[in-house]
Request: fold
Amino acid sequence: MALDKVGIAKRIAQELRDGWYVNLGIGIPTLVANFVPQDITVEFQSENGILGMGPFPFDGEEDADLINAGKQTVTLMPGASIFDSATSFAMIRGQHVQLTVLGAMEVSQDGDIANWKIPGRMVKGMGGAMDLVASAENIIVAMMHTNKKGESKLLPSCSLPLTGVGCVTRIITNLAALEIKNGAFHLLERAPGVSVEEIKAATAGELVVPENVPEMKID
Amino acid sequence: MALDKVGIAKRIAQELRDGWYVNLGIGIPTLVANFVPQDITVEFQSENGILGMGPFPFDGEEDADLINAGKQTVTLMPGASIFDSATSFAMIRGQHVQLTVLGAMEVSQDGDIANWKIPGRMVKGMGGAMDLVASAENIIVAMMHTNKKGESKLLPSCSLPLTGVGCVTRIITNLAALEIKNGAFHLLERAPGVSVEEIKAATAGELVVPENVPEMKID
Amino acid sequence: MAINKVVAGAQEATTGIEDGMTLMLGGFGLCGIPENCIAEMVKMNVTGITCISNNAGVDDFGLGLLLQKKQIKKMVSSYVGENDEFERQMLSGELEVDLIPQGSLAERCRAGGAGIPAFFTPAGYGTEIAEGKEVREFNGKPHILESALTADFAIVKAWKGDTAGNLVFKATARNFNPMMAMAGKITIAEVEELVEEGELDPNTIHTPGIFVQRIFQGTGYEKRIEQRTVRQKG
Amino acid sequence: MAINKVVAGAQEATTGIEDGMTLMLGGFGLCGIPENCIAEMVKMNVTGITCISNNAGVDDFGLGLLLQKKQIKKMVSSYVGENDEFERQMLSGELEVDLIPQGSLAERCRAGGAGIPAFFTPAGYGTEIAEGKEVREFNGKPHILESALTADFAIVKAWKGDTAGNLVFKATARNFNPMMAMAGKITIAEVEELVEEGELDPNTIHTPGIFVQRIFQGTGYEKRIEQRTVRQKG
Reply:
C-alpha cells in the first residue's frame, strides 16, 4: 500500500541524525517534526528567524508575533533563539543547517528541482526555497511520486522552471525512497506492499534498481 | 600663536552639526569630544561597537569589557547601543556616520591621505582607518601643519603609502583651517596670531588664499 | 543626551513620501508590519510606489490595503500568495512583480544599508533568477552576483523603541525589519512602546538608533494572525 | 531538548587543533579574548598556526603568549601595535603578517560564515590593499572585491552561554566574536557563565547556538585592561 502524507513524513523522520539542524518546508515536510526518533535530538530552523521551533501553541496561547515560515502560530523550545532574516539565511547559505526537507513539482535524475512556478499560472514566488536548495548539504524532497494526472514527477529533466540545479540528494514519495547520484534515481526502498514494477512504471527518469529492494519499515 | 592640540580639537568641535554621528580617531580627534557646543547634540561612534560613547569612567568604575577603539576604558551615554564589528562597519561603510575626524602623516591637495605606514618602519596596521576614509561624507584631518623635521604635511601628492584617495574634505592644523577642493588646499582661517605668510611657507601643496582670511575664534 | 528622533505620529512620520518613490516595508506575512504607517499611506493616497517587502499582505490587511487602492506600481518580494486582488492585478498586468529569493532579498537589503554594492550568492544559480547576472565559480560552486537594495523610505515596526531611535523587536516580528531599517535613506520606525533614552539595555538593542530617522508610538495594533494553528490541551 | 554542545573544559574544547591550522580568535585588544583556550594552546604547544584576529595581544597576555613561544606562523589582523615580541618577529621575517582594514576583516568573517564567497567594498581602493584585487565601479565610486574568510577552528569568548550553544556578549567584548563564531568549521565558545537551556531569553541572544559546536565555562578570567583611562570625581 502506498504511503499517505503521514507515512511519507514518518519515513523522512528516519533520515534525521542526532545533532542536526533541520529546515522543514510547508506541507508534508512540516509533519516530519511529529516523528523525530526519541533517541536523537534535532532542532528545527524556520527561515523567518527561529532556531528551536516547537509545536503549535495550546488553544488561547497563540502569539501573533511568533510564527513560522508558513505563517502558522508556533512555540519555542527551551534553548531556542530568534534572529533576523539576514542571519537566518546566513545559517542556510553558510551550510550550518544540515538538512532541508521540501516539496517539489518535479525532480530530475540530475538532482534538479522545480517547485515554484508553473508558466501561465499565478506565481506566488520562491520564498526561501532557492536559497535552501542552493546551499543545504542534504536535501530531501517529500512528494507524491506522480502528479494528479498520473504523470511521473521523477523525470529525465524538469520541464518546469527550476528552483535549483543538481541539489536534491534524496526523495521520499508515496511509493519509494530514492537516492540521486551519477545522473540517475537509485531505488533504496519500496513503500509497504508496493512492487518494484509499480515504481518503475511511475518513474520517467532513469531508475537504477538493485537486486534487493527492501520494504520500508514504518511504525 | 599656533594652536596646541587642545586648540585644534576646539576648532574641530566648531565643525560639528546638530544630529551628527561622529567617529573620532586616536590622539587629537579624541579630544574633540570635550568641546561639543552646548546647543547641539551629537553621538560618538567607536568602531569596536559603541554608539553613544561617553567620557572616561570615574576612578574605580572602569570595566574591562567596555573600551573604545583606542582600547581605553569608557562609559556609555543614555541612549547608547552596543553592536558587533560587522554592524559597526556597516554603519561606517553605509554612510550612516556623518563625520570622521582622524590624524594623518600626509595629506595631498587632491584629498589623498597617508596615515598608516612608513616604509622601513614597524607597521602597526590600518585598523579601521581605510574603511572610515573610504566611506565618510565628511572627513576632517586633525594634525600639525609640519612634521618633526619642519617639513610640510600638506603636499602636492603623498609620498607615503596611501590610506585613502580623494577623500579628505577639511584639515585643521596648528596653523590653519583648510578646505580641499578642485585639487588645491583652500585657506579658510588662520590660527590666532598666525600670518598667511607663515601658512604659505608651511604648505608644500597648492594653496589658494582668498583676499580675506579671518582668524579662528577659539575660546 | 542622545539625538532625538521622536515625531508626533504616523502623519508626521510619513511626511515626504511621494508618488513614485521606492519604499521598504518590514514584516513577514502579517507579522511585524508597520500597521500605522500603512494606514496613513492609504489615507494620504500616495501612488505609483515600488514596495520592497517580503510579502504583499492579504486582501484586507497589510499591503493589501494599498493594493486595493491601486497605490502600488511594483512589488519586490519573495512570496506573494494569499491575496486575490494582488493576483488579479498581477495577471492583468496592472502590477509589476519582481520575485527575489528570500535570503537574497534579506542580504540585498543589508548590503544596501552596509555600503556593500554587490555580493555573490549561490541562490538562484541555474534558474531564471540568474538571467542577465554575472556567474562566477568559488570553491568549485557557481554563484551569481546580486546587487544592494536601498529605498527612499524604509518603514519598520518594532516592539519597543527609545527616543534615540534604538529598537527592540519581539520574537519573529523581527524578520526583515532590522535590515530594512539599515537600507532606508530615511527610516521610519513605529513602535508599540516608546520609552525614554536610557531605558533600554544598550546590550540588547537589535537596531541601533543611527539607522532610524523618525520614531513614534503607534496605536491600535490589530496584529492579525494569518494562520492560526493550535493544539488542544490534555 | 536542544542539541547539547557542552564539553568539560578548555582541554576537551581544543581537541583536534593541529599544527598548521588556521584559527580565528575573537576579541578587540585584550577585550573579549578567549583567555582559557589561549592558555590551553600554549600548554598543548600547537605550532605553525595562522591566527585571524583583529589584534595580536600584548607581550605577556592574549595572543602575545602564543607569540612568545613562536607558535604563530602568520597573523591576519587590522592592527598589531603594543607588542614588542611581535615587532621583533615581524621585522626579522619569522612571522608573516597580513594586514586587512578592520571593517573588511569583520565583513570577510561574516561572509565566510554566511556562505557569501566575495563582496565589493570601497575600503582600501587606491591603496596597496587593493593590489591584485578586482576593481569595479558602483554608483560612480570604485570598489574592490574582497573574499570570505573561514577557519578550521573559531575560538570565541562570551559573557553567558547556554548548553545549546547560544551566546550573549557583554558590552564591547562582543566585537569580532559573533562573526568569527559564524566562520569556524568548528567553533569553540568559552563563557564566563554557562546556564541551562531555556535560561537565556531567546529574543536577546547575540549568537544562535547553531554556530557553536563546543561550549564550556571558563575559569580565572583576568580581563586585563590595556589602557586604563579614568577621570576623577568632583
